[in-house]
Amino acid sequence: MFIIFNVVNNLEMNMSKHKHYYNMMLFANDARHSEHPEQNWEMRVKGNDEWQPCVEIPSWESNVEYRQKVNRIHVGKMSFPEPQKHSPIYGSTYFYVSTSTSNDKFTVLRDMWTGNEYDIARLNMGVVHISYLYAQEHADVLSAVCHGEHDV
Can you tell me the distance from the alpha carbon of 96 to that of 126, in angstroms, rounded to the nearest whole number? Predict the structure, then answer.
């Protein structure tokens, strides 16, 4: 039995992940919180510039791109992607806006979600993002507001 486990484990470690692996994991997380997770997703055929709403569960085709719909929070003329409302998948990397500033700017840090007290506190504070870029946009808006630039 130990030999079989090692063979299977080695195969899994050497196999490349599905092209849409990351989005599949995000979709599964959405399905934990919604009866119709496809309503939170968009798709487009490669070569097409226009994103379309998903009307059914994605089939994860190789010639199609998928993404989560991103709601934005507007502050004056600026905006940033809405932070996560639900806990990320256990063991996944997430990014958060640090409330301690560096050089008078908010910074972005990364962590692995384990559901510990710090993870939960960040989620409740509304600073958790699934993407570094989303977190950086959030940090930039907070920094601008703190410097009185919210009408920019």
Answer: 9
